[in-house]
């Protein structure tokens, strides 16, 4: 288990990531990274989220030398489709129809950086959703909860009633796999890590 480093920055403005790190006892500043989040053609989902996490910590580390920076990016994957945050209520409905009654993967890329040392990894959790009828999906989308969440649902909120089972890290599905963050910080603290 890693002990709290000083001068940590979370390169995200996500309320869920902030809450997770706070509950886990980390002391940190929030400095959201502004990076191009477009997926490259044919980029595998695992490489995509790891790249975005590295891009986020790199963008913040430039102006914060000597500080540990944590970055993350989360997507939902069903079959070969990568689902990020929905751009509209209609897109949220389409996403939830894809996920209804099926298992899908939640992937979060996490990167930690201190100076030139940067390490990253990807956590995968399998989530099983109940069968959702159109009325349920429409009601849920109208709550507004899906609007800022990968895959158009939040396991920690109203949608918790739709989840029948998860295999893996719960905090990963929320947006930040805390055990992975801790392991990466521990590795970073052991000395130079190649970029």
From TrEMBL:
Q: Which Gene3D superfamilies match?
A: 3.90.950.10
Membrane-spanning residues: none
GO function terms (MF aspect): nucleoside triphosphate diphosphatase activity
Keyword flag Lipid biosynthesis: no
**Is Kinase one of the keywords?**
no
Q: Which cofactor does it need?
A: a divalent metal cation
**Keyword set for this entry?**
Hydrolase
Name assigned to this protein: Septum formation protein Maf
């Amino acid at each position: 288990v890693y002990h709290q480093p000083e001068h940590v920055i979370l390169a995200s403005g996500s309320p869920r990531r902030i809450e997770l790190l706070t509950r886990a006892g980390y002391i940190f500043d929030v400095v959201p990274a502004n990076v191009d989040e477009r997926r490259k053609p044919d980029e595998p989902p695992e490489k995509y989220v790891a790249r975005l996490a590295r891009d986020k910590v790199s963008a913040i580390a430039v102006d914060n030398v000597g500080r540990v920076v944590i970055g993350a990016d989360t997507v939902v994957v069903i079959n070969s489709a990568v689902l990020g945050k929905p751009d509209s209520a209609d897109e949220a409905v389409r996403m939830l129809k894809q996920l209804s009654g099926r298992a899908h993967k939640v992937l979060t890329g996490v990167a930690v950086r201190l100076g030139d040392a940067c390490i990253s990894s990807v956590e995968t959790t399998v989530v099983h959703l109940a069968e959702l009828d159109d009325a349920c999906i429409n009601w849920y989308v109208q709550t507004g909860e899906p609007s800022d969440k990968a895959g158009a649902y939040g396991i920690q909120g109203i949608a918790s009633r739709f989840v029948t089972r998860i295999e893996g890290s719960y905090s990963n599905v929320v947006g930040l796999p805390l055990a992975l963050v801790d392991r990466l910080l521990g590795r970073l603290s052991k000395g130079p890590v190649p970029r």
